[in-house]
Design brief:
homodimer; mainly alpha; Phenylalanyl-tRNA Synthetase, Chain B, domain 1; 2 domains; three-stranded antiparallel sheet; globular; DNA-binding
DNA sequence: GCTTTTTGACTTTCTTTGACCTTTATTATA
DNA sequence: TATAATAAAGGTCAAAGAAAGTCAAAAAGC
């Protein structure tokens, strides 16, 4: 009666036991239950999300894995820390850093993170042009030119 | 479970212990773990970079070696020194000298160093207002600060 | 019919490897 | 002795491989 996702959920719950966190391999687990690897993601996002008291982290590539953690006091401390920082002014870089942290902890998806970053970018938030724009194009022009020359060997301009 | 890179990382960490720095031979280490020598570079650049609190130096040729150092207070003193110099005007030669120093300490990759040198070159900065030297120190300062901030997340300056 | 589950094609990220390059030290030679 | 050749490191970069992520369509439950 219960779906495979439910079985995977209880399997993970059992493996977690009383522990604070658990490391799993997405592929192994999917293999064990004979399901598509992405179904593990489905289980994680529907059963082991923040609302249900969990946070997950992962790493791709060789030796990649997924970590499932209980979202306990320390998590809310972490979140409070971030909210505290947002009581002061936050420049673009810091904002991105915070967004990355939140994405990392699967608080937001990375696609959502991108939107957020765009929303808080200098471009989005401000300022009609100033004189520095001319300089900027000059610098960029210079860098691109030199890069191009270096790659194609035709050096007609001085090295700097 | 964990990748070989992770094992190499902990091996280095263990060897370093509480010490301030550690000398290793790239080839020996690669041999010990049965990996391509370049994988040692991979571990160094992903795990023992400035972001993570380390600086590395190396020497080639006979008796060559790699030194892994904790980026501690003295590092920030060194960095502060450079930033101090950038409070005055900086001509192109001096700028390149500083960039070389930063590349030497693996603060930037040499490919990044090239870009920076181009960005502060007379050609890039030529402008009608004869502000070249002031601009140069400003740009250099900006790049280093941003790099440093990006790595440590302490942002006291505005994003642009 | 609507919601939840399952699947699979495509994407992104991280690791591993290898071929080729640069620098430094040592040794041989004029 | 100065210089040229050789050997002994480490550096770089790109390709191949190994995971996990995304998204939308199909299938299954209710």
């Amino acid at each position: 009666m219960s779906s495979i996702s439910d079985m995977i959920e209880s399997f993970i719950m059992d493996s977690l036991g009383e522990g604070e966190y658990l490391d799993i391999s997405r592929n192994e687990l999917a293999n064990y239950f004979n399901v598509a690897p992405s179904q593990i993601n489905y289980v994680l996002s529907t059963r082991f999300n923040y609302e249900r008291g969990f946070l997950t982290e992962s790493k791709r590539g060789g030796g990649g894995h997924i970590t499932i953690m209980r979202a306990d006091d320390s998590t809310s401390v972490w979140l409070d820390g971030i909210l505290d920082r947002l009581n002061q002014e936050v420049d673009y870089r810091t904002g991105c850093y915070i967004v990355d942290e939140l994405v990392n902890k699967k608080f937001f998806k990375s696609s959502q993170g991108e939107i957020i970053k765009t929303a808080i970018s200098p471009n989005a938030l401000a300022n009609p042009f100033k004189l520095e724009n001319r300089l900027r194009s000059q610098i960029l022009r210079r860098i691109i030119l030199k890069h191009n020359i270096k790659q194609h060997g035709e050096s007609k301009t001085s090295s700097i």
